[in-house]
Amino acid sequence: MHRRSFLAGIVGATGLALTGPARAQGADYWYTVRGDDGGQVPNLHLSADLMNAVQGLPGLISGSAADATVTMVEFFDYNCPTCRRAAPELRALAAEDGRIRLSFVNIPVLSPFSVEAAKVELAVHRLHGGATAEAFQKKLILQKGVATGARALDLAAAMGLPRPAIEAAAAAPALDKDIAAHIGLADQIGFDATPSFVISDAGIIGYPGQNAIMGMVGAVRKCGVIDCTS
């Protein structure tokens, strides 16, 4: 994909951190929840407007658990190592549980290559729908090495999708706006690390681990929020 199709300056313009763990200081600890390592998990309270805005994002990939009682949204970057570890773990948990709707928001803040890959994903979503985009995302997030536009297009072609049409759609200016909307909302929420998550009315910064996530899911089912003791 040609460099003029990049969303120029997107990383610097957002003010989001490029990599690494969640912030240890300055975070609002709205709920008292701990990660699998025993440390307190940085988390933020989300207003109803922000929660609705997440669900209204263009190109949102959303699972289809028929009897879902909890929705979990991961904000990720294809070139984030922790995102690559978290995504299959969470998919396995969601499949085992059967009542978690797992959704994904692409916030490509780590490099221009991440922007390329994200635009191919959004193009797949526009042309072939959410189910195909979910299958594409599931495969691309597991690939080793740097995720680029070229590698994303190779994957789309390997899945039997029309490469020229997807490449043309990925270069459309409308996708720049979609990506800006994704990153802008992450910034508005206060996410400064990838991955980050929305569960119920909480924004969780960083990946707290499988057990911690399932504890939050259980709490939401019990009392409607990620920590019933707060």
UniProtKB/TrEMBL annotation:
InterPro entries from the UniProt entry: Thioredoxin-like_fold, Thioredoxin-like_sf, Thioredoxin_domain
Q: Which Gene3D superfamilies match?
A: Glutaredoxin (3.40.30.10)
Report the protein name in the record.
Protein-disulfide isomerase
Which keywords fit this entry according to its UniProt record?
A: Isomerase, Signal
What span is annotated as the signal peptide, if there is one? Answer: 1-24
Where does the chain cross the membrane? Answer: none
Gene Ontology MF terms in the entry: isomerase activity
Thioredoxin domain: which residues?
A: 35-171
- State the protein's purpose: May be required for disulfide bond formation in some proteins.
